[in-house]
Design brief:
Elements: E1 2-3, E2 6-13, H1 20-40, E3 51-53, E4 60-65, E5 70-71, H2 72-86, H3 101-112, E6 119-124, E7 133-137, H4 139-142, E8 153-167, E9 174-179, E10 185-189, H5 195-200, E11 209-218, E12 223-234, H6 240-247, H7 259-269
Antiparallel strand pairs: 1-5, 2-4, 2-6, 3-4, 6-7, 8-9, 8-11, 9-10, 11-12
Helix pairs in contact: 1-2, 1-3
């Protein structure tokens, strides 16, 4: 049986007047949390599909729904995890299990959009078929969650990809590399003295390059940014013959057995 996710949302509760800019931030923060929970549960196809419907009179209340059909069990799991994410309880809040560090940070950001005395109210369908769960979110309730926010980590590493953008002017020059592993754009600032080395990266169209340096990694979003690039080089180009030579190193290793049968025979001998 398929269903869809619905969250009854009421914003600005406890406030007679709310700046439109603040209201937009609150709505976006709720969408960010919902998207992040969906990703945690492997429901990436619902991300970006949220819509508002059934507006209520005299308040900023509406149904936040997603038109994508999902299994009823998945809808129940989404309700359970969204509830756990926005209603902090130390005993149930286990990052790295179902709730990711990314979701934790989005919940913190959501709390920071509320002013003094404000709250958001969510009505979530109850997986057991009983009365819907009523959740009230306030900055006071979520202040302890900030302790779960992990700091960004730094390490020395490399970015491999294609040059995408070059800003050679100003006091802080940088290039952006399109990472071949995940198609992510990584900004790589460099020193003015490395101008010639950076220029050499653009000598061949669509070349794959390697940029080394100190990299900053945000565990919440999974995004990387290079603090300072220190070494630049072009990645080696492999011909088809190189790959053929590599994969043909042991052509008769398994004999008459398939690869799976050969590995199984090695395990049986242990």
């Amino acid at each position: 049986m398929s269903t869809r996710i619905e969250i009854k949302v009421r914003l600005g509760a406890g406030n007679k007047c709310l700046r439109l800019l603040d209201l937009v931030k609150q709505i976006q923060s709720v969408v960010d949390v919902a998207n992040s929970v969906a990703i945690d549960l492997g429901l990436e196809f619902v991300v970006g599909e949220w819509q508002a419907e059934k507006f209520q009179n005299r308040s900023m209340g509406f149904i936040m729904s997603n038109p994508k059909d999902i299994a009823e069990e998945q809808q129940q799991e989404f309700t359970r995890v969204f509830d756990a994410a926005v209603r902090y309880t130390p005993q149930k809040y286990e990052t790295g299990r179902v709730i990711s560090q990314r979701t934790v940070n989005y919940v913190i950001s959501m709390a920071e959009t509320f002013g003094e005395g404000e709250k958001a109210v969510f009505n979530l369908p109850n997986p057991t078929g009983q009365r819907p769960k009523l959740i009230q979110v306030t900055p006071q309730k979520l202040k302890n969650i900030s302790a779960l926010k992990k700091e960004e980590k730094g390490y020395h590493g490399a970015v491999i990809g294609c040059p995408y953008e070059w800003n050679a002017g100003g006091g802080s020059p940088f290039i952006k590399i399109r990472d071949i592993a995940n198609n992510e754009l990584v900004k790589c600032p460099y020193s003015q003295g490395d101008y010639e080395r950076v220029l050499s990266l653009f000598s061949k169209r669509n070349a794959v390059v390697v940029v080394y340096g100190e990299i900053k990694f945000d565990p919440a979003t999974g995004r990387r940014e290079m603090k300072k690039a220190t070494k630049f080089e072009r990645a080696p180009v492999f011909e088809k013959s190189d790959y053929d030579r590599f994969f043909g190193l042991f052509p008769d290793l398994t004999g008459d057995l398939s690869a799976a049968e050969y590995i199984r025979s090695l395990r049986d001998d242990e």
